[in-house]
Design a protein that fits this description.
By secondary structure, the protein is mainly α. It is built from 13 helices and two strands, in the order ααααααααααααββα. A two-stranded antiparallel sheet has the order 1-2. A hairpin with a 2-residue loop joins strand 1 and strand 2. Helix 7 runs parallel beside helix 10. The longest helix has 32 residues.
Length: 308
């Protein structure tokens, strides 16, 4: 990689790394052995992410991205992942390292290791906005598109409370590109602006401490395991906290759940979580029906005895 003179060398090297990560790891080996192999493949390139030579740093970012996208990346140690997050965050603050490959590396980390990347979210947003501004002035369309993609991915993935201080700046930057003559730029800028506005309204409604409803919850060794559970009423508030009509519609939906005669199970309606009040209502309805059946059975029994 140190002899690379262009992006072609980086692309070729990344293909080699992807192939090695697939075939040099013994499926029957221990987890420690697999982790060691991943580390030995990745470390030389992660150390070059902040190289003073743009071709080297860019090629290294491509190689690390290829490794992250491989199936065996699940065996990477937390220390290795954190080291990459630290270095790519620092690299994007340096002009010589602000490349499309580095922006793509951040997107790959968001897909696989977003929990580890989360502390660097605000710094990455600021770097992305800075790159976007410079690229717009230089009319570098590829850098503009990659910057928007990275910023949008961060908004959709990381917790809102971490990046909210930058949301206003994101909205302002994206609004300036919504009417760009190139649809390849105007379309993602419009989508990013819509996401930013949604998150801003969500914070105004008092949901800032929640994980963004737009966030993608991933599975995997270095991804957060958990779920974001909310009721139909919560969805109504997130969609439109100022719309009484929307809130009324969703309230009516809850009432229809409560009053429906055939209930699949207590506390669950067709896989949709219901509130404690609904569960109590279902239990109450069940008790009433049992009491009615008991009364009918007693009446029938008395009639039979009378006939006898």
């Amino acid at each position: 990689m140190s002899s690379a003179t262009g992006s072609l060398h980086g692309v070729g090297c990344s293909k080699v790394i992807r192939t090695l990560s697939r075939y040099v790891i013994d499926p029957l080996g221990t987890e420690e052995e697999k982790s060691g192999i991943i580390s030995s493949l990745c470390s030389p390139f992660s150390g070059c992410l902040m190289s003073t030579k743009e071709s080297v740093s860019s090629g290294s970012a491509l190689c690390v991205t290829a490794l992250i996208q491989s199936n065996n990346w699940q065996f990477a140690s937390h220390e290795l992942v954190n080291d990459i997050c630290l270095k790519v965050s620092g690299a994007l603050e340096e002009v010589r390292c602000q490349t499309i490959s580095h922006l793509g590396l951040v997107v790959a980390l968001l897909e696989q290791n977003w929990l580890t990347l989360e502390p660097y979210g605000r710094s990455l947003i600021r770097s992305g906005l800075s790159i976007l501004d410079k690229s717009t002035k230089a009319s570098n369309s590829q850098m503009i598109i990659s910057s928007i993609q990275m910023i949008h991915s961060i908004m959709k993935t990381l917790e809102l409370s971490i990046i909210f201080s930058e949301i206003s700046s994101i909205i302002q930057a994206m609004e300036q590109l919504r009417d760009h003559c190139m649809p390849e730029i105007s379309t993602p800028a419009f989508q990013a602006a819509e996401t930013a506005n949604t998150l801003y309204k969500q914070e105004e409604c008092g949901h800032g401490k929640r994980i963004s409803p737009l966030a993608k919850i991933h599975d995997g060794r270095h991804r957060r395991r958990g779920s974001y559970s909310h009721s139909v009423m919560d969805d109504a508030e997130i969609r439109n906290c100022g719309s009484n009509e929307s809130l009324y519609d969703d309230t009516q939906s809850v009432n229809r759940f409560r009053d429906h005669d055939s209930q699949p199970s207590v506390g669950q309606y067709s896989g949709v979580p219901v509130s404690a009040r609904v569960r109590r209502r279902l239990l109450s309805n069940g008790s009433d029906r049992q009491h009615q059946m008991s009364s009918v059975n007693e009446e029938v029994f008395r009639c039979i005895n009378k006939d006898c």
